[in-house]
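MOLECULE: protein
FOLLOWS: sequence and fold
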Amino acid sequence: MKTTENKNMYSKARLLALVGFIGLSATSFAQRPEVTSAAIAVDRGDLAAAQQHIDEAKAIVDEKGPSAVSESTLQKYYYRRSEIYYKMYAASKDITSLNEAIENATALLAYNKAVDDDDYTDDIMELLPTMFSDMSQTAAVYSQDEATRADAYNIYNDLYNFKKTDGVGQIDTTSLYYMTLLASQMKDTARTIEHYKQLLEMGYKGRQWTAMYEGQRTPIESKEMLDIYLEREIVSDPELSPSINEELWIQAIYWMNISGRKAEFNEYLAKAMELYPDNSDLVIFQLQDYLDSEDYDGALANLETLRQADPGNALYLYNMGFIHHVYKEDRDKGLEFYDLAIQADSTHKDALYQAGLVYVEYSNVKADAMNDVPSNKQREYDALKKEKEDLLKKALEYFLLAEAQDPEDKTTLQSLAKVYYQLGNAEKALEYNEKSQ
């Protein structure tokens, strides 16, 4: 009796196991004919039928899960789905079909890596570079139109992520760089800064091989391909473009600055200055940081560094004058640098105006002194008045030169009206007052 009971239990266990095996096999068999039918259809050029069969296979895979499909069938499914959808893309140029093709191609490579097998790997690797190229070219076209720049960004992002998958294992810095440019064009500050930081962490230099092909300098996708082309004498005169790493630092710092991310701005500026201490753009960023923190001596030292590299730069000279004049309240030193800026560039409107303003301030000092002269010292009063008028006439010269550079500048016109009024020329004062309205 005990033996019979054990025998029944054993039979039941075998029966349950057999049922489970049959259920799994049914799933595999239900999936395999669809993949085979899809393969037959695509081989005979019937894309509509191929799509129908491979989509039905997808429904089974999605419902049961890839683990319910045999290894060989799943490999064939990924390959055929990629192949079919790429052919659909070729016929329609529908980017969603291209995405589906690449998604399944990379899924096959990742799966083969996981199971340590290479079925269909060679086949898909023949297709994948062309798929990637098509995707990149589509994104490049979309990026030219403001209305489709967001689509271009998304395509580059998909391409970047596809290449990063386990099966491919590439870090597509070129696509990331284009994503950065598009994000900045779309004024997406957060993404722009994020991508610049990624590129800098990768040490991206953006160097591109080019060579002469049919009379034109043409970009070459890689050094490996360049060597092949050179060996076959398809191209000639190869060149490697200069690094853009320095410019990436400048752009990253610029975006951090305008977005108010002060801690990151200071951190990245310090790193960039270590790498590129002579870069004038970085020195100017540092100058702004000195001014923001009211370190005027540091700002002047910074400008002196710039000036040594470019002694005749009117902008540097003007800014040194402005710091001395406005922030350090040293009119004499300010005027000295304003005049140096004007000598370097006689059309520098701001230097002309500020120099005129210094003379107005000098005249105000004389006016204050006049108010302190006792009434019985007319000669002293008249001398101060003459000095005041001479200073105002000097201011007038500078303001008129500034007006010649920008006749519509209201600040200059208002200053001219005031100076003419103080010089007793009511007619001119009224004229410039009306111009300034």
About this structure: The radius of gyration is 37 Å. The CA atoms of residues 35 and 387 lie 100 Å apart. The domain at 24-186 is CATH 1.25.40 (Serine Threonine Protein Phosphatase 5, Tetratricopeptide repeat).
